[in-house]
Amino acid sequence: MSNAPPDRIVIQPNGRPRPLSPHLQTWRWHITMTASILFRFTIGAISVGALIGVAWLAAVAFGPAAYASALGLAGSWFGLIVGFGLTVVLFSLLLNGGRHLINDTGRGLTIKSADLLSNIAVYGPLPLAVLFFIALFASGRISL
Fold it and tell me: What mean pLDDT comes out for the span 71-88?
């Protein structure tokens, strides 16, 4: 019975029909699904960022030469791209976390408000990261 095609009803041993789980063929893609998947991705990506932070702390602990090498890598094109990516991830984590915090209070659960919060969480991180990096370049904190 476990090999029954999805268009058939599966009967349990007690004789009752067992409902099948919905699948992508049943549900249309929605922005809240995108926000949920993106939130899971950002949790994994921020873990990589935490490892980079630990490596930076290790460079600080190993002395001025190691720290200078770490700063050189961070200031390179590769380091700036990784830094920008982690900034996008950080803003995504903050916006999605805010969405979850609002939902945990029982607010933002209507379709209209859930769509609005999800749109902010999905489309907000990139422009925020761009503005943040513009501010960093304008203030002279980073340069090429």
Answer: 96
Residue with tokens 């490596």: 55
38's tokens: 């993106």
- The tokens describing 120, both together, are 């902010």
Which run of H or of E encompasses 5? none
How crowded is the C-beta side of 140, counted as CA atoms within 13 Å?
0
CA dihedral 56, 45, 84, 132 (to 10 degrees): -100
Which range among 12-16, 57-61, 66-70 shows the weakest confidence by mean pLDDT? 12-16
H or E stretch including 13? none
Query: CA 110, CA 18: separation in Å to the nearest integer?
Result: 29
Q: What span, in angstroms and rounded, lies between the C-alpha atoms of 84 and 49?
A: 11
Supply the mean pLDDT for the chain: 90
Amino acid at 98: G
